[in-house]
Write a structure and sequence with these properties.
about 425 residues, alpha/beta, Aspartate Aminotransferase, domain 1, Aspartate Aminotransferase, domain 2, four-stranded antiparallel sheet, about 40% helix
């Protein structure tokens, strides 16, 4: 670690001089005490905590604006509709989508992938075709494609990884062929943090006319995601992993694909006209937003993106990289601890195992010290199998985590080592 980075990290500041301790004060839950311990939350890959600004927006909506959207012509409905559509525009700016019409609100990454699989996928995939995914995938980017493959008679092909958790790009190129209909990739592995070279992989797939679906659940909160730069065909992410509410997410798609995709669900809000003989549907995005949406969630997501923009996504990425480097040094010094996932490019995720201690035991012990981590297979069982483990303990960091918290986690892990060596 360089001297300048040590200085920035030692003061828990990013290069701009932002005081992370002051930032923490904007997250009410971080002041909690767990079993008479200060609360250390390092389960951010599962969900992030919410700043007061997001909580306030949700409260304001329900106390001052609550109404259904698009169909009412009274004052509150008009206010709610305007706020909802402004949220769509806010998301479009955040991801640099060419148009807000390409932003579809869904419940989260899982629903977004299922929507693409069950509409675009079923349209495109036939018997004998191939769907290309990677060993790194979350179950949400495996199971939906398996369902389509089983229904259509297609085949799932898998891009392998090396022992560090890096995708084998030569194998990827060899797997791309005239039978490949869709490539579906995680931008960042939720389990081990590997950052996938999406731009390069999109370019190579597009050279063969193959569209690419990107699971951005773990990238959108931690790095700049620019749809025009990435040039992926679909991109999905969840609000609750980027300081926003649960139950809200985003699907971005290119016009050329969204235009011809059939509805995913039927109901109110997505129709032009209905008779008993035939229904005519709205154009996108309305066609894919049947029923009453999570109005408050979309507004809360917009507030979360305002929060991220206020800090600066590049500053977030820089600070989290420093925390990751420091945590890697500290964890690597612990006797019997082995880090899984050592890709040169990775997000702030440390997945590890300890000699003689099951991941669930590790999580239970840490919880006694007020530390929240995740333990298990992280909805990535095929990846765990490739790594030769049934599961791991996972510490995942965000902008509000400090070096002192890393030290506390490391000290607690050393206590676990001593306990099992008795």
């Amino acid at each position: 670690m360089t001297e300048s980075s040590q200085t920035a990290l030692g003061g828990n500041r990013i290069e701009s001089g932002l005081d992370v301790h002051a930032l923490r004060a904007r997250f009410p839950i971080l002041a909690k005490r767990i079993r008479d311990n200060s609360f250390v939350y390092v389960d951010n890959a599962a969900t992030t905590q919410k700043p007061q600004s997001v909580i306030d927006v949700l409260n304001e909506y329900y106390t001052d604006q609550n109404a259904n959207i698009h169909r009412g012509i009274h004052y509150l409905s008009e206010q709610a509709t305007e706020a909802y559509e402004e949220a769509r525009c806010r998301v479009a700016r955040f991801i640099n989508a060419p148009s807000e019409r390409q932003v579809i609100f869904v419940r989260g990454t899982t629903e977004g992938i299922n929507l693409v699989a069950q509409t675009f996928g079923r349209q495109r995939i036939r018997s004998g075709d191939e769907i290309l995914i990677s060993t790194l995938e979350h179950h949400s980017n495996i199971v939906p494609w398996q369902l389509v493959a089983e229904a259509q008679g297609a085949v799932i092909k898998v891009i392998p990884i090396d022992d560090r958790g890096v995708l084998d790009l030569e194998a990827y190129r060899a797997l791309l062929n005239e039978r490949t209909r869709i490539v579906a990739l995680s931008h960042v592995s939720n389990a081990i943090g590997t950052v996938v070279p999406i731009v390069e992989m999109c370019r190579e797939a597009h050279q063969k006319g193959i569209p690419v679906v990107v699971d951005g659940a773990q990238s959108a909160p931690h790095m700049k995601v620019d749809m025009q730069a990435l040039d992926c065909d679909f991109f999905v992410f969840s609000g609750h992993k980027i300081f926003g509410p649960t139950g809200i997410g985003v699907l971005y798609g290119k016009d050329e694909w969204l235009r011809d995709m059939p509805p995913y669900e039927g109901g109110g809000g997505m129709i032009q006209s209905v008779t008993f003989e035939k229904t005519r549907f709205l154009e996108f995005p309305g066609r894919f937003e049947a029923g009453t949406p999570h109005i408050a969630g979309s507004i809360g997501l917009a507030a979360a993106l305002d929060f991220v923009e206020e800090i600066g996504i590049d500053k977030i990425a820089a600070y989290e990289e420093e925390i990751l480097h420091y945590a890697t040094e500290q964890f690597s010094s612990i006797d019997g601890l082995r880090i899984l996932g050592t890709a040169p490019q990775k997000a702030a995720v440390l997945s590890f195992v300890l000699d003689e201690a099951h991941p669930h035991d590790i999580s239970t012990f840490l919880d006694q010290d007020g530390i929240a981590i995740r333990a298990g297979h992280h909805c990535a069982q095929p990846l765990m199998k490739r790594l030769g483990v049934s599961g791991t303990a996972r510490a995942s960091f965000s902008i509000y985590n400090t070096r002192e918290e890393v030290d506390k986690v490391a000290d607690s892990l050393r206590k676990i080592v001593r306990f099992f060596k008795r």
